[in-house]
Write a structure and sequence with these properties.
two-stranded antiparallel sheet, globular, transmembrane
């Protein structure tokens, strides 16, 4: 149990480090800037606590929604008892009611994940934290929810398969099983595949973030500002029409 908790904490911490580093690298690579290893590592440490705060805010919101749904469920349960009805926990009606609440919660979480798809990218790129990245992501994903939903469904499907395979193997894991090379190779291979999926998802989300900014008319000004130093505007006398001359550095 302790090993599982430590392993989960290890994955959580290094996932946040990877989020900061990968997002920084993809974002700067989009503009053609050279990405240095030290800069990427520095970005991972700089973004760590803002990412933690944003993650805590999202978990608090989701936990609050779960608590509200649980209170509604318990309220209905108490109401049926006050009205004198006998509640059969094995009844298909009771099981169906539980499924309705679970499905409702899952749909709410999925809807929020679609709206917050850019939250961690915003934390790294725009240096914000807490609730602000969630609001910013909500504005950026407007009109692009289908694409965001498709991305979450695609990567979530493959991640879910890997988690299910790993969990099934862990449930039968014994202390002496770590001495088996087959078991160790299985754990390493599934962890590697999961990290590759995460890498692909973070890169795709960052590119999707840039696309969303372009759709909302925010990217043109940034590109012009980014490459402004490479161009010089020269006013000529023929008709007073400004000409743009590209300056090539040797």
């Amino acid at each position: 149990m302790l090993f599982t908790l430590l392993y989960t904490l290890f994955i959580f911490i290094f996932s946040l480090f990877a989020t900061g580093s990968i997002t920084y690298s993809v974002f700067h690579g989009f503009y053609g800037r050279p990405v240095k290893l030290l800069s990427a590592i520095k970005s991972a440490f700089t973004s760590f606590f803002p990412l933690v705060s944003t993650c805590l805010v999202t978990e608090l919101i989701i936990s609050g929604i779960l608590l509200i749904l649980a209170l509604i469920f318990l309220g209905l349960f108490q109401l049926t008892q006050l009205l004198g009805f006998h509640v059969d926990y094995t009844s298909p009606y009771f099981i169906s009611l539980c499924l309705v609440f679970v499905i409702t919660f899952l749909f709410i979480v999925l809807y929020l994940q679609v709206k917050w798809v850019f939250a961690y990218v915003v934390v790294v790129v725009e240096s914000s934290w807490g609730l602000e990245p969630l609001k910013r992501s909500k504005n950026l994903v407007h009109g692009l929810k289908r694409i965001a939903f498709s991305m979450l469904l695609f990567y979530g499907f493959f991640s879910g398969i890997l988690i299910w395979v790993s969990a099934a193997d862990w449930s039968y894991a014994a202390a002496d099983k770590w001495k088996s090379w087959a078991f160790v190779i299985h754990i390493v291979s599934t962890s590697t595949l999961f990290m590759l999926i995460m890498l692909s998802y973070l890169a795709a989300t960052t590119v999707f973030y840039m696309y969303s900014k372009a759709i909302h008319g925010e990217l043109a000004g940034e590109i012009a500002e980014e490459f402004a130093r490479e161009y010089v505007s020269l006013p000529f006398d023929d008709g007073k029409v400004p000409h743009v001359v590209s300056v090539v550095y040797g």
